[in-house]
Design goal:
Layout (H helix, E strand, L loop, with lengths): L15 H38 L7 H34 L3
Helix pairs in contact: 1-2
């Protein structure tokens, strides 16, 4: 009975370069999309604020308040995630191999 290993050449190690590239690209694109959404939320709240200041009759005060709070919460969460990522990076750098 012939048993072959896992992988292309019988080794147990996967192709690290291509796997890391895919993970880096997907994480990078996800991060970029998330930051774009936060930016759009901020811009929408700013636009509503300007329209309210110009007395646009289609803008209600409660809509402006909700949009401003959404933008504030999105920014707070983004900053918290950034802080956690930096702490994780620092922790990895402190590891001894």
């Amino acid at each position: 009975m012939n048993i072959t290993g896992v992988g292309n050449n019988g080794s147990l190690r996967p192709e690290t370069k291509s796997a890391q590239k895919v993970l880096t690209d997907s994480f990078g694109s996800y991060l970029k999309e998330a930051l774009t959404e936060v930016n759009e939320t901020q811009l929408h709240a700013d636009e509503m604020n300007v329209r309210m200041a110009l007395k646009d009759p289609t803008i209600e005060l409660h809509d402006l308040t909700i949009a401003s709070q959404k933008a504030s919460i999105a920014l707070d969460v983004t900053l918290a995630i950034k802080d956690r990522l930096i702490e994780g990076y620092k922790e990895i750098m402190r590891m001894q191999v």
